[in-house]
Amino acid sequence: MTDPHADPAPTGTGTTTAPAAGPDPRRRRRVVVVAAALLGLLLVGAGAVVAYRSFASPADEDSGVRACRSSGVLLRGEQGPVVPREKLVELTELFQASADPQLAKVGVTMVGQVERVQRLRGETGPGAELYRQTLRQILPDFVAACGKHGVTVEG
Questions:
Q1: What is the DSSP letter of 58?
Q2: What does DSSP assign to residue 59?
Q3: 91 lies in a domain?
Q4: Are residues 143 and 106 in the same domain?
Q5: What backbone phi and psi angles, to 5 degrees, belong to 103?
Q6: One domain, residues 49 and 103
Q7: Sequence-separated (6 or more) residues with CB below 8 Å from residue 130
C-alpha cells in the first residue's frame, strides 16, 4: 500500500531543480575582510591612545598647571575652611616652579593673599577689608591664568 501523503517519485521528465542559492562566497569574504580591517584600525587606535598617555604623563605637566588642578581650596579662602599651611606652601612652590611666568606670578600672589586673608579672618577694619578686596580682585586673573592651560578651577 502506498502512502497518499507521500511525495510522488520523480517522473524522470528531465527537469531538475537547482539547489537553493546559498550566500555568495565572495560576499562573505568581503565582509570578513572589512571586519578584519575595522578591528585592525580599532587596535591601532587603542595602541595610539595608550602610547600617548604613557608619554604625556602628569609628571611631564607644568608644575603651575598641577597647582591649578589642586587649588580649588584657594577659591574658598575668604569664607571656606582654613587651608592648612602645608598646602599653601606646597602650592606656592608649585607655582614658583612653573614655566609660565604669568601663571607663576598670579599663582604665588593668590596663595599669599589667601594666607593673609585667613590670618585676619574674623577681624574687621581697613587692613582686613583691603586684603579681602585684593583677593577678590586677583581671583579673575588667577582663574583666567589657569584656564589658559585648560584647567577649570572650581571651589
A1: G
A2: G
A3: yes
A4: yes
A5: -65, -40
A6: no
A7: none
